[in-house]
């Protein structure tokens, strides 16, 4: 199957999931992520606001904010650009592009360049954790999103600026497929965490 066929099938399957399953599986996925060193040591969490039965990272955000971590959510700027903006509570979001809830705050996620070794004006490499949504994934760690390429371009931009961040994809076990066709621009997450 090509990407469009996989996407159509997996979105249909995911939309049939019950609210009870989504809530329980999301909570378990969040619990598993919170045990990882990438999360424990992160100062900044780049997350997403769930839609269409996606894994809900709400518990993760609650925990992160309680622990003093900074949380940022994505906002679509135009057809090719996505930036992340500060999130403190649901008062900070409103419907935006494609009907997705987006931040209304103006505090943009910016990585300041390191001034000296071990001294930085902003978060250092690996103090930043991105939690990514997906439509499907395969055993080789390939991610299939909605087709906009926003996450790939954002991560490519950080890589060009020599910024390395940890990336974890939150997914249900049922989103796994045998194989996803990949392109040169596709970027794999470092880890995939499911309820299984």
Number of E strands: 13
Inertia-based shape: globular
Question: What is the CA-based Rg, rounded?
Answer: 16 Å
Number of helices: 5
Structural class: alpha/beta
Strand content: 15-25%
Largest sheet: 6 strands, mixed
Task: Tell me the distance between the termini.
Answer: 25 Å
Describe the structure.
The protein is 27% helix and 24% strand. It is of the alpha/beta class. The strands form four sheets. Strands 3-2-1-8-11-13 form a six-stranded mixed beta sheet. The mean pLDDT is 86.
Break the fold down into its secondary structure elements and pairings.
Layout: H1 3-15, H2 19-34, H3 37-40, E1 44-46, H4 58-66, E2 70-76, E3 82-87, E4 93-95, E5 101-103, E6 114-116, E7 119-120, E8 128-132, E9 136-138, E10 143-144, H5 150-160, E11 166-170, E12 176-177, E13 191-193
Helix pairs in contact: 2-4
How would you concisely characterize the structure shown here?
Helices cover 27% and strands 24% of the residues. The chain is α/β, with parallel strands linked by helices and 196 residues long.
